[in-house]
Write a structure and sequence with these properties.
Its EC number is 4.2.99.18. The chain has 2 domains: 102 residues, Orthogonal Bundle (Endonuclease III, domain 1), CATH 1.10.340; 91 residues, Endonuclease Iii, domain 2. Helices cover 50% and strands 0% of the residues. It contains 13 helices and no strands.
Length: 274
C-alpha cells in the first residue's frame, strides 16, 4: 500500500468514527460535497440506456426492470427497427413483440406494458410522449422512477431517479433511512437545488455500479471514502478493492453500445457478439 493510499484509508477511518449526531446543516454540506466529488470522478456520467428520442427512452426504461441496461441496449436495436413509433408498436403482434424483447426477461408482462403505453400515446397524446410526470404515470408500466428518467433525459425536467443503486448508496451515506422510493426521493431532493437532481442521479448510479456494490463495495478504492459513514462495509485494502471495480473503472466495456463521445471506456458488444 502506498503512502497516499495509507493516508486516504486513515482519513476514512477517522471520518467514520462515531461522534455527536450530524446536524442538518452538516448533512447538507456533506451531501453536496459528495456530489461535487462524484462530478469530478464521473464528469461523463450519463443515462446508460441507448436512445435517440423520448419514445425510445420510455420503452427502454420500461424494459430495464429486473434486468441490466446492457441487456436492454442489446435488445432495442431490433425492436426499434421493427416498431419505430408508438403507432407501429401499438399495432404489433403480441407474440412477435414478446420474442423481440424475450432477452430482457418477464417478456410477456413487458410486452403488455409496451402495447398498452403505445396505444395510450397514440390515442391520448397524438403519438407523442408527454412531458409531464402526472401524464407519464398514467401510462401502463410507467411509475415515478421511469417518469423521472424520461423527464430528466428527454425533456430536461430535473428529477431524481430512485433505483436500487441510488437507494442503497443514499442510505449508506445516511442521507435518509427511508426504504420507500417516494420518501427517499423527497428526502434527497430536499438536500440539493433542483438543478442538480438529474445529474446527481446519474453520478450516484454510476458510483453504485462501479465501486459501491451491493454485496462487496470497494471501499479501499473509493474516492469519497473520507465522507462515507459506512466506510468499512466492504474491502478496505486498496489493491484488493481495485480488483472489484467494474466497467470503465475496471478496464471493462460499458453498458451502452453507443456511448457518448466523452465516455472513456469501451462500448458494449451487441447481443450476437457476447
Amino acid at each position: 500500500m502506498s503512502e497516499q493510499e495509507s493516508s486516504q484509508v486513515a482519513k476514512a477511518v477517522k471520518a467514520v468514527k462515531p461522534g455527536k449526531p450530524e446536524s442538518r446543516l452538516a448533512l447538507v454540506r456533506r451531501a453536496r460535497r459528495i456530489n461535487r466529488e462524484l462530478s469530478e470522478v464521473y464528469p461523463y456520467a450519463h443515462p446508460e440506456l441507448d436512445f435517440e428520442n423520448s419514445f425510445q427512452l420510455l420503452v427502454a426504461t420500461v424494459l430495464s426492470a429486473q434486468t441490466t441496461d446492457l441487456r436492454v441496449n442489446q435488445t432495442t436495436p431490433a425492436l426499434f427497427r421493427a416498431y419505430p413509433t408508438p403507432e407501429d408498436m401499438a399495432a404489433a403482434d403480441p407474440e412477435a413483440l414478446e420474442q423481440l424483447i424475450r432477452p430482457t426477461g418477464f417478456f410477456r408482462a413487458k410486452a403488455r406494458s409496451l402495447l398498452g403505453l403505445s396505444a395510450a400515446l397514440r390515442d391520448r397524446f397524438d403519438g407523442q410522449v408527454p412531458g409531464r410526470l402526472e401524464d407519464l404515470v398514467t401510462l401502463p408500466g410507467v411509475g415515478r422512477k421511469t417518469a423521472n428518467v424520461v423527464l430528466g433525459n428527454a425533456f430536461g425536467v430535473p428529477g431524481v431517479t430512485v433505483d436500487t443503486h441510488f437507494g442503497r448508496l443514499v442510505r449508506r451515506w445516511k442521507w435518509t433511512t427511508q426504504e420507500d422510493p417516494v420518501k427517499v426521493e423527497a428526502e434527497v431532493c430536499a438536500l440539493f437545488p433542483k438543478s442538480d437532481w438529474t445529474m446527481l442521479s446519474h453520478r450516484i448510479i454510476f458510483h453504485g455500479r462501479r465501486i459501491c456494490h451491493a454485496r462487496k463495495p470497494a471501499c479501499g478504492a473509493c474516492p469519497i471514502a473520507p465522507l462515507c459513514p459506512s466506510y468499512g462495509e466492504g474491502e478496505t485494502d486498496p489493491e484488493k478493492a481495485r480488483k472489484l471495480l467494474k466497467y470503465e473503472m475496471g478496464g471493462q466495456p460499458g453498458q451502452r453500445l453507443r456511448p457518448p463521445a466523452d465516455y472513456p471506456g469501451k462500448p458494449a458488444p451487441p447481443l450476437e457478439a457476447e
